[in-house]
Design a protein that fits this description.
Neuraminidase; four-stranded antiparallel β-sheet; 21 strands; globular
């Protein structure tokens, strides 16, 4: 129905940007920050009821050392609890990478660097796992999905899903990719919308075209998610709305790493 059930975090966060629900139902947020304003540059883990369980990073402080984050855009956890955080919200910014942490929040390593190579990223905006445990990274400013293993080794890159802002993969390895910035100078000729395909083969099956797909402004869904009935949700920043796309028939689904 869209009725709001609960809210938390007021006064705690600066710019909450990425959202992940793990297999235990815990809610993770990535706060990209607003310069040095309090609350930003951290990843937080909450219970379903909003109790804060873990914080990675230091509020209002961006950095590159162990335990510090720089503009975290998204977070995802593997089945064994390992935490992967995409960092770097600015195009060609000083640090575009993935930070890897243990399930208890201890720093392990950084993966990748800023650039256009096979082991490089530019403003990685979202990240998800497939059922094989591969990382799918929305390497937005390079107009591609990067596929790495959990140690940061290159596997493949795909351009057929447009300019990816958000990525979600379900337990059948169906991949949903939100493209909020195409058509304009960033990716001319590609319409904005949500592309649905296979994380195994890379084939695109469906395209949910945005209502402003040919607007030069960044206007489409940035975040994307799917519920247990197969409804597809897009979080649209410019229009400040959550849109729902209903399948013609119920399609039972769940997250790839649940």
């Amino acid at each position: 129905t869209g009725q709001r059930l609960d809210t938390w975090g007021e006064g705690l966060m600066a710019f909450p940007h990425g959202l992940h629900v793990d297999g235990d139902g815990n809610v993770w947020t990535a706060d990209v920050g607003r310069d040095d304003a309090p609350g930003g540059h951290v990843v937080r883990k909450f219970t379903q009821n909003g109790k804060l369980l873990m914080t990675i990073g230091q509020s209002g402080v961006s950095g590159d050392g162990p335990g510090l984050l720089r503009e975290p855009t998204d977070v995802v956890t593997s089945p064994d609890g390992t935490i992967f955080i995409t960092e770097g919200h600015i195009k060609n910014g000083p640090k575009s990478r993935i930070s890897k942490y243990s399930k208890d929040g201890a720093f392990i390593t950084h993966l990748g660097s800023t650039g256009q190579g096979h082991l490089q990223l530019s403003a990685p905006h979202s990240v998800a796992f497939d059922t094989q445990g591969r990382l799918f990274i929305a390497d937005r400013d390079n107009n591609r999905l990067m596929i790495w293993d959990q140690d940061g080794n290159y596997i493949d890159q795909w351009h057929q899903f447009g300019r990816p802002s958000g990525v979600y993969i379900d337990h059948t390895d169906t991949i949903y990719v939100a493209d909020s910035e195409s058509w304009g100078p960033d990716n001319p000729g590609w319409k904005k919308g949500i592309r649905i395909g296979s994380a195994r083969t890379g084939q695109v099956y469906y395209f949910l075209e945005d209502i402003e797909s040919r607007d030069f402004a960044h206007s489409g869904a940035e975040g994307v998610g799917v519920d247990t009935l197969g409804n597809v949700y897009g979080g649209v920043v410019r229009r400040r709305m959550l849109e729902r796309h209903e399948p013609s028939a119920v399609q039972t689904t769940r997250g790839a790493t649940w």
